[in-house]
Amino acid sequence: MPAALFYWQTGDRMGSKTPLYDSHVRSGARIVDFGGWDMPLHYGSQKEEHHAVRNKAGMFDVSHMTIVDLKGERARDFLRYLVANDVARLKEYGKALYTCMLNEAGGVIDDLIVYYLADDDYRIVVNAATRDKDLAWIRKQAEAFGVSISERAELAMIAVQGPEARKLAAPVIPEQHREAALALKPFFGMAAGDFFVARTGYTGEDGWEILMPAREAPAVWDRLLATGVEPCGLGARDTLRLEAAMNLYGSDMDETISPLESGLGWTVAWEPADRDFIGRAALETEKARTDRRRFVGLLLEDKGVLRNHMKVVVDGIGEGEITSGGFSPTLDRSIALARVPAGDYDSAKVDVRGKLLNVRIVKPPFVRNGKACIDI
Amino acid sequence: MSELPGDLLYTNDHEWLRQEGDGIVVVGITEHAATALGDLVYVELPEVGQDVDAGGEMAVVESVKAASDVYAPIAGSVTEVNEELADDPEKINADPYGDGWIVKMQVAELDESELMSPDAYQKLLDELDD
Fold this sequence. Notes:
The complex is a heterodimer. Chain A is α+β, with helices and mostly antiparallel strands. Among the domains of chain A are: 3-62 and 154-243, Gyrase A, domain 2; 293-376, Elongation Factor Tu (Ef-tu), domain 3. Chain A has nine helices and 21 strands. Chain A has helices at 21-26, 46-55, 75-82, 131-142, 165-169, 175-182, 217-226, 234-243, 280-288, and strands spanning 30-34, 37-42, 58-61, 66-71, 96-102, 108-118, 121-126, 148-151, 155-161, 189-192, 195-198, 207-213, 230-231, 294-300, 311-314, 318-328, 333-340, 347-352, 355-362, 367-368, 371-372. In chain A, the strands form five sheets. A six-stranded mixed beta sheet of chain A has the order 10-11-12-9-3-13. A six-stranded antiparallel barrel of chain A has the order 14-17-16-15-18-19. Chain A has a five-stranded antiparallel beta sheet with strand order 5-6-7-4-8, with helices on one face. In chain A, 46% of the residues are buried. By secondary structure, chain B is an alpha+beta fold. Chain B has one domain: CATH 2.40.50.100. A six-stranded antiparallel beta sheet of chain B has the order 1-2-3-9-8-5. The radius of gyration of chain B is 14 Å and the shape is globular. The chains are: A alpha+beta, B alpha+beta. At the A-B interface, helix 8 of A face strand 4 of B.
């Protein structure tokens, strides 16, 4: 890849910068380090950004995420071996699949999205913080399959999310592809000239993730600003995904935890039984166990705020831990995702700085498409 | 960031203190602290009558992203808490030196040399910006 394309990656004591870094600074962003990247935390009010996405439209710079193209005659066979969900389910152009990439022990190396472009052509998007280990793992596993692995670091990515997101963002899609982009069904993507548009996201709202050449990103960002799309930082991204109960790698699951104990059992394709994928044997063993921990939602009944790593106490049964906790601006209550002991119970207590507060066990998600999914 | 109120004293922990006479002082957190925390969503207040040591935990302010202790700037006894923060913690973001006050305390004596003048606190903030 030509070195000039990496102009925004400084590599010195400063973090890496996306092509939109200057746009963020201009909009008054509070910049924080996120996995080695200088990213916007918020532009003034995290809560207002959160509400903008639930009620209208907000945009996130997610250019730090790692985009990788996999090509080759055996690309499909390779992905069927590499990840726990089955890409053979993907039959239509552009269809997306959410999946975990496991180690032999069934632990999660990363979670990712796979877009199907052709039997010999797939695009995947993995997390930024796990980039190096992911690429090393994928390259190592790919050797036997003769699949080419190309990182697309020259692409920027903007997620535009909210009930009005697609309407407001349509003008930034190259004109000859605009109609097709607007017709995309949920969880489909498509090439649009040198852009790529997908009806996916990480907020529980409708919207697009738009990939584009880095040099075009600042102009696209400015046009979206001008149409009234609110710039949103990583803070709102986290509260939105927590309400939508979308897992965060490194918090809700990691290499020591399987998808079965992370609320991601639905992403494991057990059929066909003869498909061999990395981690399958370990997952089969774990699946047979009856003492597997539950992955649940918690709603705080008392005043306070649940936070990551707080202890969950289930009387007479045992203890668990909050994997993601925080405040839900939509519900105006504190909510959490937690890994708790097996058993049939619908309430528990959480140790909040020495006080045991009452929580109700709920089935996630908490919020989808602007509406509460649980009774308050 | 707007100018610091000149009639307050400040601490290293980004709290402010206003003397109301008769040994009563009002305590809150500075605009710098409120901005750094972000939108506040919950405030845990002490009991009225509670005695606190200088530097002891007195309240907790929680934003969308983090929880932070509020320390007693000097020793004293809590005489009043800002009950309105229970329903509207964002008062602290909106008006940190006014409606966003947190606790009133009765103190025996106030040694101003233990605290910072507006000028001294401004200097601290300027250094943080560098």
